[in-house]
Amino acid sequence: SKPETSLSMTVVPRLAELLVIALGLALCSIAHGRSFTIDFEHDAFLKDGKPFRYISGSMHYSRVQPYYWKDRLEKLYAAGLNAVQTYVPWNFHEARPGNFDFDGDKDLVKFIQMAQEVGLLVILRAGPYICAEWDMGGLPSWLLREKSIALRTSDPTYLAYVDKWMSVLLPKMNPLLYENGGPIITVQVENEYGSYYACDKDYLKHLEETFRKHLGPNVVLFTTDGASDSYLKCGTLPSLYSTVDFGITSNPEEEFKAQRDYEPHGPLVNSEFYTGWLDYWGHPHQRRNSTQVAETLNAMLMLNASVNMYMFEGGTNFGFWNGADAPSDYLPVPTSYDYDAPLTEAGDPWEKFTLIRNTISKFKHVPSHVPGPTPKAAYGKVQMTEYASLFACPELIMKNVTADNPVTMEELDQDFGFVIYRSMPIPVADLAPNKPGLNLTLYGLHDRAAVFVNRILQGILTRTDAKSSVESVNVSSVAIEMVVEIVVENMGRISYGSLINDSKGILNDITLGGRLLKKWISQSVAMNDTSKILFHPLNESQPPTFELSVSFFRGTFSVEDQPQDTFLNVTGWTKGQAFVNGFNLGRYWPAKGPQKTLYVPANLLKTKTNELILFEIDQAPCKSPFTDCYASFVDTPNIG
Fold it and tell me: Lower Cβ count inside 10 Å, N or C end of the chain?
């Protein structure tokens, strides 16, 4: 309870405090004369008291190198857009509880200020959950160490972490609100919450209170859900402005009826008008007809709707940041997030950009100048000259845990990458000595495993079922005893739906020939510093004594002039991770597709000598005499 105080002690200071606040607000109003509100009577936004309609495009600062932020923003502006929409991935900024990072490629404030300098307003989608085909929908994986946590609900454990995060993020955003002189006109609360099973209105109310606490009473807070009552009924609150999302349609007015059921008055808003669609490994590259995109946009603008195009610049899932979907199967998203957007992954305008720009020009002025594509270069073949087996890289092992059962990645305090599980020596005589092979079964494989017995690859297992993946491989029995080693890859946490509490590693038991195997060493593998790796020469005079899987291969190449954008062609390799000058470009999997090249922004390269490292999981093309042990840098992408 609060301590008792006398009236005489409190009234005068409180009056003085209120006068100071009132004076400050008045001065702020005089200084800026800025406001962004909703005119419910005339179904419109009001910017500084005048009717306003935004035409926006999505660009995620976390998917574009800061070197290119201005280039991409200027191209949005050149298309006639007056706003940019971006998500804030919580896990991008708080990799460890309480350690917040807003520097370098995480400098959100700089990105927002740059948008304003270019002439764009900002629509901020602050989460805490974002989906976005981003790992775990932007939620930090360390939340999963709380075994009973209920994500995206009013669970007190979850809310305590959310509140702490928002108490850091939102005060940084407050000075950037439009009313305070910045470019942020609206802020989204949560994201497509109506698509989540919980339907916890108390959770949404708590978020609204938190946002108001840090951002004040005036900023327009909104929600976004699919254009259907089945989504809107759980994703909305009367005090938050309800918007919808939908793609190409011949009748947008029909889609907007769903919004009108929840917002009888106010501006029509499509917060995610899909200009394309996402890809999955092993599925064809998705495209959406450019003419139909432009026609639907035209129809929405004829209705005086405000529209955000998702995406306008897709960008790249660098490193391990890609998410996954789980309709029934587990479907990880590839490194490229091109999205068939008006700007390509490399930021180049193409036909869809031109058609959209022409459409917008019917409704508002568009700049006369359109920046062209960034220069591209083909740096040619890079011969791999050195190698290192993962099993011979103790410098990459961050943590060892010995326990009866495998330990998950989260329990190892690891977000991304790989875990090695190693058994104790197993006497073959104790198993089934008369059988030529035995089934090794992994219960709860998340997500992909290279299985070794005595360092000989037995096979690759891949998670299929999103809920409970049980995978088996027949392994060869050997004389006397065997040691099983399993290298498990986290291929991206589920980012949409009810299964976002997607722990990684081997979640349950491992059996061999029906016998439960106990006592496992679980090893956390860190790949955030490739300079630690001790490489060995790869040449015919030293025949390799290594497997062609779970190994690093290193080569160098030269850039003579100013570096340009390029694309890494890994045709001939199977599956793995690529690093240029220590930067994690992302996953490659040309054997699966649709993506066959990785985008390499110019800023990652340097004049003179550059380094390429490929971590090959399955099978490298590096048998003696090593003539095929190379990758290439080309000037044209191939994403399917």
Answer: N
